[in-house]
């Protein structure tokens, strides 16, 4: 019996050694961490000029690649206003910006009403909306799920209007009548979005048609942000308006032109354009 046990022991040891030997204390395979998201393929970054359409409203957005530019009234323009200087460098991250101004049809789909004075059709820009109204619209749109939206910052707006920070007087070519509805050609009213030529990024009506609310409160350029952030509103709650409108003379539809209004102001020449957050 003793000899048999000894042979069995030797045979067992030989099998273990042939499989790589004993592995005392070898760790068990790690269990999946339920708190850690699975790593998947990383989505490629958008490229300049890429477009995206919101499935809820049909709004189209254009990717604006980030960069550093001189913001303000420089050698490339004229009629500099008191709040348009000094020139200053601003560094921006890339962002999505609406290809067109928000239309009456898009506004009515979310808000179930149309406040516009010039109620001519779904593809006309919504107007007579306050800064507060614009943010209510954005909150309701964001509650639909999916992508999130906001007003662009003033620095983002001017960078995009000038086709990515180029030295442009207007939002595109210097021939104003080609790219803008303004006092010289509008006939005293708004027009359908996208019916003038786009700027160098494929954005329409950045000059003229309706002026556009920005996220920023009013500030002078001595104290304005030097990045993608928005300036805080002053105590009287005034916010920036950019781009000029159908009723404005050429100097007020320049890309550098700055205006501001109360957050609750509703007039027939101010509308909005959205930026996409995610």
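^ structure tokens above, recovered residues below v
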């Amino acid at each position: 019996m003793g000899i048999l046990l000894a042979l069995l022991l030797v045979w067992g040891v030989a099998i273990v050694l042939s499989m790589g030997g004993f592995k005392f204390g070898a760790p068990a395979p790690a269990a999946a961490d339920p708190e850690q998201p699975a790593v998947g393929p990383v989505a490629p970054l958008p490229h300049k000029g890429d477009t995206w359409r919101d499935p809820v409203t049909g709004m189209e957005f254009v990717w604006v690649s980030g960069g550093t530019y001189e913001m303000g009234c420089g050698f490339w323009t004229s009629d500099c206003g008191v709040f348009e200087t000094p020139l200053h460098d601003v560094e921006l991250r890339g962002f999505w910006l609406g290809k067109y101004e928000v239309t009456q049809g898009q506004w009515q789909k979310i808000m179930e009403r149309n406040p516009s004075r010039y109620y001519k059709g779904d593809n006309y820009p919504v107007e007579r909306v306050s800064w507060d109204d614009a943010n209510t619209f954005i909150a309701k749109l964001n509650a639909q799920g999916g992508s999130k939206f906001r007003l662009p910052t003033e620095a983002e707006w001017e960078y995009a209007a000038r086709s990515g920070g180029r030295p442009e007087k207007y939002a595109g070519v210097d021939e104003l009548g080609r790219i803008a509805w303004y006092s010289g050609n509008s006939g005293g009213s708004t027009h359908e979005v996208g019916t003038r030529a786009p700027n160098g990024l494929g954005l329409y009506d950045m000059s003229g048609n309706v002026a556009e609310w920005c996220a920023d409160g009013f500030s002078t350029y001595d104290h304005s942000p030097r990045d993608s952030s928005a300036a805080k509103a002053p105590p009287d709650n005034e916010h920036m308006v950019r781009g000029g409108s159908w009723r404005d003379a050429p100097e007020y539809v320049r890309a550098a032109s700055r205006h501001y209004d109360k957050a609750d102001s509703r007039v027939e020449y101010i509308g909005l354009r959205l930026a996409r957050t995610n």
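Helices lie at 2-18, 104-111, 131-142, 154-161, 176-179.
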